[in-house]
Design a protein that fits this description.
Blueprint (H helix, E strand, L loop, with lengths): L1 E6 L2 E4 L4 E9 L6 E7 L6 E6 L6 E3 L7 E6 L4 E6 L8 E8 L13 E2 L3 E6 L1
Parallel strand pairs: 2-11
Antiparallel strand pairs: 1-3, 3-8, 4-5, 4-9, 5-6, 7-8, 9-10, 9-11
């Protein structure tokens, strides 16, 4: 089992920044690719970003590319999502997830463990 706890969400004005953290415990963190997803009200959960086990490879959904940066610290068992130039449409609950995968999964079905989510609200 892997337990994931997100933090860092909150209310921010459009154009602002937030840094989300996801702390992992349980099994060896570096064995898992990590992903970030988000879900807005009345919408399906969507992929945001993924990072490989070592942190050497990353992948982003198109609308987040250039604004969001995913990183990880395997010594601290933590994955981060730096979000810049936030827009009202970025408002959602953000989830981190862990996958026993060698590649960079983009489908929620490929992830094995999920955090409880953290709310991000961007005001206009």
């Amino acid at each position: 089992q892997v337990q994931l706890v997100e933090s860092g969400g909150g209310l921010v004005q459009a154009g602002g920044s937030l840094r989300l953290s996801c702390a992992a415990s349980g099994r060896t963190f570096s064995n898992y690719a990590m992903g970030w997803f988000r879900q807005a009200p009345r919408k399906e959960r969507e992929f945001v970003a993924a990072i490989s086990r070592s942190g050497g490879s990353t992948y982003y959904a198109g609308s987040m590319k250039g604004r969001f940066t995913v990183s990880r610290d395997n010594a601290e068992n933590t994955v981060y999502l730096q979000m810049n130039n936030l827009k009202p449409e970025d408002t959602a609950v953000y989830y981190c997830a862990a996958a026993m995968a060698r590649m960079l999964p983009t489908s929620s079905r490929e992830y094995d463990y999920w955090g409880q989510g953290t709310q991000v609200t961007v005001s206009s």
